[in-house]
Structures are given as structure tokens and as C-alpha cells.
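Give me C-alpha cells for this 134-residue protein.
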Amino acid sequence: MEESIKSPAFQAYQILHWVFTVVPILAGVDKFFNKLTEWTMYLWNPLGRIFGSAGTFMHIAGALEIVAGFLVAFKPKIGAPIVALWLAGIIVNILFQQSNYDIALRDFGLLAGALALSRLAMHFDHPHAELPRV
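Here you go.
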């Protein structure tokens, strides 16, 4: 099947590819600055103590999110499932916290988007893929 830049499937892939590149990188960077939110308030307390403090945990999480974003950028077939698993972990963390269920629901939607990107990447991200026609 020959794809073009005008193909809805390719456009959906590109939208998801860019979103799941940029958003994890921005969220990861913000784990160091807390300008979007105070990230530690979403962390289940026992989980925060694993690395000594919630702040340290969030710095590690931020670094991993940045790496995941770049992995999606350069190898979405690998990065998208990793982001999906990361989001599943966030959802479980929020459910253990027993609050912020709205955030868990939003993250479930993001997880579904990451899985959709993963499936689209099976078609569009492979070594012998031809560039879409204009």
C-alpha cells in the first residue's frame, strides 16, 4: 500500500509522533522546575521514599521522561510502547494515591494514544520504509 503525506493514516502517525516526542520532554524538564505544577503532589508517598525524597524521585522520573521523548522522536516503534508502560505506571501510582482520578483518566487517554502510535509506527517506522509521496 502506497502512502502519501495526504494520507489520513500518515497524518495521524505524524501528529502522535510529535505529541509523544514533545510532551514527555516538556513534562520531564518541568520535573526540575515545577512551573506547570508541583509534581510531587501526584506521587504516592511510599513511592517517593524509594529514592529518599519525592523531589529526588521526580528528578529521576523527569530524566527518564526526557529520554523516552527522544526515543519516541528517533525510534517511535520502540519509544511508544515504553511511553505507554510509563503512563500505565503513572495511572497505578495515582490509583494508589486514592485521589486525582481525573488525572488517571486523562493519562489513560494518553496511554491509548501511545498505543495507537505504537501500532502506526509498525507501519511507518521501519528501516526500508519509503518516504510518502507528496
